[in-house]
TrEMBL record, chain A:
Gene3D superfamilies: Fe-S cluster assembly (FSCA). PANTHER family: 1,2-PHENYLACETYL-COA EPOXIDASE, SUBUNIT D-RELATED, FE-S PROTEIN MATURATION AUXILIARY FACTOR YITW. It holds the Pfam family Zn_ribbon_PaaD. It comes from Frigoriflavimonas asaccharolytica. This is Ring-1,2-phenylacetyl-CoA epoxidase subunit PaaD. Residues 10-66 form the MIP18 family-like domain. Residues 114-156 form the PaaD zinc beta ribbon domain. InterPro entries: Fe-S_Maturation_MIP18, FSCA_dom_sf, MIP18-like, PaaD-like, Zn_ribbon_PaaD. NCBIfam families: PA_CoA_Oxy4 (TIGR02159).
TrEMBL record, chain B:
This is Ring-1,2-phenylacetyl-CoA epoxidase subunit PaaC. The keyword Oxidoreductase applies. It is an enzyme of class 1 (oxidoreductase). Pfam families: PaaA_PaaC. Its EC number is 1.14.13.149. InterPro entries: Aromatic_CoA_ox/epox (IPR052703), Ferritin-like (IPR012347), Ferritin-like_SF (IPR009078), PaaA_PaaC (IPR007814), PaaC (IPR011882).
Length: 158, 249
């Protein structure tokens, strides 16, 4: 009966995002539900970030492996709706992103976010420019600081 | 055959073939940032194709996977629009193709979100944010080209002359669409075409591009009839599965 006392969300929070390992899959808003079905079997509901995000395959595997350590079978169910939004990223995770050098996504209006200036995560200058609307992964856009010249990523508002 | 299967397949085939075509730019983009942008868009298309194929496979009910549908069909079984397979051409033509397709997908997904089929509605809701972003990207560049110098203006005009007659095919129907429409499962393709045309007219007026007056449109899209370019795409796309049947990662 040890298992049923396990706090599933806390346990899942130990799994880092494969592409941005400073934040975990719970604070990223990917985990949408977790419950025991029987004593040694859980059902975990996850939602994909982008349609083609390759990290989703790893995340599913990571969850299964993580529970396997405890001898628990994890059934991972992918649910598309309600669709994932960057608004679900927690405030704590946003700060972790910034410290890591990735500007966290603006909240709310996606269109308006395209034209808002981004603050350099290194020197805090607002004198920055967009290099590309796209970046090294589907979720990011490329920017550069005009003052300290540091290139940096912006986690797109999605 | 389930008409909803064919309809879902037409959406998936468009995304797969558009994505495959666009992915040819990988490492060959006009400059580094655009190389990344175009291949990111290609990846979004592949992801959307995967999701729609998964659902199509379920609707078909023959225990197939999304990979079976993407890799193991024959040329005439693909229901994509001919615009998707049309060669990339230069940067102006690539952007123009992505622009035309983004406007189409924007209206398609906005309408599909209201579908009485829950899964189609969810897939549309998932995809639309990505498509809006592609629209922003392609329309921004199209405007830059249209308002640039003689060279860029000529290139847009030339690209438009090449691809215009393929745009109508996006709105060609698969068998049984009228019935699906009556059940509020899908939007009317004719209505989508009108909406698409009005948006193009509005944007082109802003950008300063003259809209072609010709109504001639290539036929055969959505019926498995393809341009001569399609066989070559399939050769590359299906190579691994043909050479090593059943191979997986």
């Amino acid at each position: 009966m040890v298992n049923s006392k396990l706090n599933l969300i806390e346990f899942l929070s130990e799994i880092p995002d494969p592409e941005i390992p400073v934040i975990n899959i719970v604070e990223l808003g990917i985990v949408r539900g977790a419950k025991f079905i029987v004593e040694d079997e859980v059902e975990i509901i996850i939602t994909p970030t982008y349609s083609a995000c390759p990290a989703m395959y790893n995340i599913e595997e990571d969850i299964i492996m993580k529970f396997m350590e405890l001898g628990i079978k994890a059934n991972v169910i992918t649910k598309i709706s309600p669709v994932w939004t960057t608004d679900w990223i927690t405030d704590v995770a946003r700060e972790k992103l910034r410290a890591f050098g990735i500007v966290p996504p603006d909240k709310g209006d996606h269109e308006a976010s395209l034209n808002k200036p981004k603050k350099c995560p290194r020197c805090n200058s607002e004198n920055t420019k967009q290099i590309s609307r796209f970046g090294s992964t589907l979720c990011k856009a490329s920017y550069q600081c005009n003052d300290c010249l540091e290139p940096f990523d912006y986690f797109k508002c999605h | 055959m389930n008409p909803l299967y064919k309809y879902t397949l037409k959406i998936a085939d468009d995304s797969l073939i558009f994505g495959q075509r666009l992915s040819e730019l990988c490492g060959k983009g006009p400059y580094l940032e655009e190389d990344i942008a175009l291949t990111n868009i290609a990846l979004d298309y592949l992801g959307q194709a995967t999701n729609f194929y998964k659902y199509a496979a379920k609707l078909e009910g023959e225990n197939k996977t999304e990979d079976d549908l993407a890799y193991l069909r024959k040329e005439k079984e693909y229901l994509n629009a001919q615009l998707a397979e049309y060669p990339n051409g230069d940067y102006a033509q690539i952007i123009l193709k992505v622009y035309f397709y983004s406007v189409y997908l924007k209206f398609l997904y906005e309408n599909l979100m209201q579908s009485s089929d829950e899964q189609l509605a969810a897939l549309a809701e998932k995809s639309i944010k990505e498509v809006r972003y592609h629209y922003t990207h392609s329309s921004t560049w199209l405007k830059v080209f249209a308002q640039g110098n003689e060279e860029s203006k000529n290139r847009v005009a030339e690209a438009l002359e090449n691809v215009w007659e393929y745009t109508g095919g996006l709105f060609d129907e698969v068998e049984g669409e009228a019935d699906l429409e009556k059940l509020d499962l899908i939007p009317s393709s004719k209505k989508l075409h009108q909406d698409w045309k009005s948006q193009i007219e509005k944007d082109f007026a802003t950008f300063g591009i003259e809209i072609p007056t010709s109504d001639f449109m290539q036929k055969g899209s959505r019926k498995g009839i393809h341009t001569e370019y399609f066989g070559y795409i399939l050769c590359e796309l299906q190579y691994m599965q043909r050479a090593y049947p059943g191979c997986t990662w």
